[in-house]
UniProtKB/TrEMBL annotation:
Keywords: ATP-binding, Cell cycle, Cell division, Cell shape, Cell wall biogenesis/degradation, Cytoplasm, Ligase, Magnesium, Nucleotide-binding, Peptidoglycan synthesis
Species, as recorded: Cryobacterium melibiosiphilum
Processing after translation: Carboxylation is probably crucial for Mg(2+) binding and, consequently, for the gamma-phosphate positioning of ATP.
Recorded coiled-coil stretches: none
Designated name of the protein: UDP-N-acetylmuramyl-tripeptide synthetase
Family: Belongs to the MurCDEF family. MurE subfamily.
């Protein structure tokens, strides 16, 4: 039985503490040396929460207005007041915009930079009683956070997580929007977790979160690094800059200690440039590291591995997930737990009792098919490296043809598309190119780029272009038979397809299950 089922209840109220705090607004002004520009007296006002968006303001909130790509948040001060905000915190430019809003206007030089500390003060989360784990890297963050959660549950420890897929407080699940919540939401969530007696939290930390102060006001107990490869070059000028954002997690103002995968030059650079004590882990025997993971057995539904560490430490266990990289993610999670003070022997005892890690990770190398028909895997991979890894992981379990369905998302890093097309065409026998969140880009142009790259990489390869994702999957299924594998990469756990600003309901998991049933395979 899987540890976590996808059908858990969704409860947006779980993102806020159930027992709201009440903080004196004047105390906030004094604590952060804020200047009061306009508005009425503040001496009797209290604050019970904080919000970065007028759309999420709850009565009693401090509304924080920051400049964005489209507008200055201060422009929504009236909306925030109507929703119940008691004051606005903003910058000098915002103070001018919010002057007539009827809210007391508190000014600080950079309101986004102040948000984490302010939210921690309001929610009382600065000295968090829970053990805080952070995970960063291009691929594997969500998986490691879920694996931490799973092992903690098997150890009997009530834990929480924030990830691209979900926020979790014990068994309660809430759908996520951002990978790492804004600081206002993160501290509210941690306060809610404290109420629920959560004693360990896994937090997925994107590079964007580090660059945008989203994890300010916290110091992580143990931070993990998976890997770094081409992604997000729409946000960063170079891979070096992207790396620099992630490196910050391994400095003393962010984390107490770290566990770093040293299989890449990027991991080895963290070892040289970090300012905190580090433990190293490698998935390759020849690379020197404190811990080594090696895969000792695999099927299409599980991966068995051995983890060996200092002083003869050794653990052999399995994950109910496909691919060496899931074993690497599990090994990283286990070493992070050991570095937080949990004895390896305790972990071994419960994993042996349960026959391995009891984890379910929505949309990550997730098997959709049953016992007959083609093997169907839905995966959230949308970077060249993720394609490379999942295709390589699936090949040994494919006696027939490996069919890959994928697209590239619009309004995101366009420079990775050539590699995505080329890797798919070289690694799969049949490629079906479809649309995947074109957003405001022309979907036909995105497909044309992928098709050209795929054709150039493998001129003799079988290529199909099917714009509609539902139809694309059905095309793949019509080409498949027993022994074949279909890898549908991109949508993972997501429940919508985003076209020109509209989120059209679409679950690749549900739809591909339906298609398998229509074809008589399920
Ligand atoms: C590019 C970027 O970082 N955008 C973020 C930014 O939005 P923006 O600059 O477009 O904001 P805006 O629309 O100009 O609005 C300015 C301010 O007014 C507020 N506002 C706006 C309209 C309104 O009616 N009321 C209101 O209060 C907004 O909340 C915002 O604070 O500020 C918003 C909140 O303040 C963020 O939610 C939003 O993240 C968007 C959704 C985003 O996609 N971010 C990406 C880059 C991201 O962070 N991705 C990583 C994942 C990386 C991975 O794949 O691993 C992540 O951690 O999620
Ligand atoms: N350790 C790993 N090394 C390389 N590829 C991986 C690893 N773990 C996962 N992947 C691939 O990356 C995809 C995304 O995995 P996951 O969601 O865990 O990563 P992520 O870093 O959280 O990405 P995102 O923030 O976009 O969700 C997986 O579906 C798989 O294809």
């Amino acid at each position: 039985m899987s540890l976590v089922t996808p059908e858990l209840p969704s409860a947006p109220s779980a993102l806020r503490p159930q027992h709201p705090v009440s903080r004196d607004l004047q105390g906030l002004i004094d604590q952060f040396a804020l200047s009061l520009r306009t508005g009425g007296p503040t001496d009797r006002l209290t604050v019970s929460g904080v919000s970065l968006s007028s759309g999420t303001v709850q009565p009693g909130d401090l509304y924080v207005g920051v400049p964005g790509r489209n507008s200055h948040g201060a422009a929504f001060a009236v909306k925030a007041r109507v929703a119940g905000a008691v004051a606005i915190l903003t910058d000098e430019a915002g103070a001018l915009i919010a002057a007539g809003s009827g809210l007391p206007v508190l000014v600080t030089p950079d309101a986004r930079a102040a948000l984490g500390a302010v939210a921690a003060w309001i929610y009382g989360t600065a000295d968090n009683p829970a053990t805080l784990f952070a995970v960063t890297g291009t691929n594997g963050k969500t998986s490691v956070v879920y694996l931490l959660f799973a092992v903690l549950k098997q150890l009997g420890i009530t834990s929480g997580l924030t990830s691209t897929a979900e926020r979790r407080i014990g068994d309660l699940a809430v759908t996520s929007s951002l990978t790492t919540p804004e600081a206002s939401e993160l501290h509210a969530l941690l306060a809610r977790m404290n109420e629920a007696a959560v004693t360990a939290v896994g937090i997925e930390v994107s590079a964007q979160a580090l660059s945008r102060y989203r994890v300010d006001g916290l110091i992580f107990d143990v931070s993990g690094f998976t890997n770094l490869s081409h992604d997000h070059l729409d946000d960063y000028a170079s891979l070096d800059e992207y790396f620099g954002a992630k490196l910050e997690l391994f400095q003393p103002h962010r984390s107490k200690r770290g566990v770093v995968t040293v299989d890449s030059d990027w991991g080895r650079r963290i070892v040289l440039e970090a300012g905190i004590p580090l433990t190293t882990i490698s998935n390759q025997a020849e690379i020197p590291a404190d811990w080594h993971m090696s895969v000792v057995g695999a099927s299409a539904v599980h991966t068995e591995f051995v983890l060996e560490g200092p002083n003869g430490a050794r653990l052999q266990t399995r994950v109910p997930l496909l691919g060496w990289f899931m074993a690497a993610n599990a090994a990283l999670a286990i070493v992070m737990l050991v570095d937080s003070g949990i004895p390896l022997s305790d972990i071994e005892t419960c994993l042996t009792r349960d026959g391995g890690i009891d984890a379910y990770i929505p949309g990550r190398a997730e098997r959709i098919s049953g016992d007959t028909g083609p093997l169907v895997i839905i995966d959230y991979g949308h970077s060249p490296d993720a394609f490379l890894n999942t295709l390589a992981a699936l090949r040994p379990f494919t006696t027939g043809r490996l069919i890959m369905v994928f697209g590239a998302d619009g309004d995101r890093d366009t420079t990775k598309r050539d590699d995505m097309g080329a890797i798919a065409a070289r690694g799969a026998d049949v490629v079906v190119i479809t649309d995947f969140h074109p957003r405001f880009e022309d979907p036909a142009a995105i497909r044309a780029t992928l098709l050209a790259a795929a054709r150039a990489a493998n001129p003799a390869g079988e290529l199909h272009e099917v714009p509609n994702p539902r139809a694309a999957f059905r095309t793949a299924l019509s080409l498949a038979t027993e022994g074949d594998t279909i890898l549908y990469a991109g949508p993972g756990h997501e429940e919508y397809h985003e076209v020109a600003g509209v989120k059209i309901p679409y679950s690749a998991r549900d739809d591909s299950r339906a298609a398998l049933r229509e074809a008589g395979w399920l």
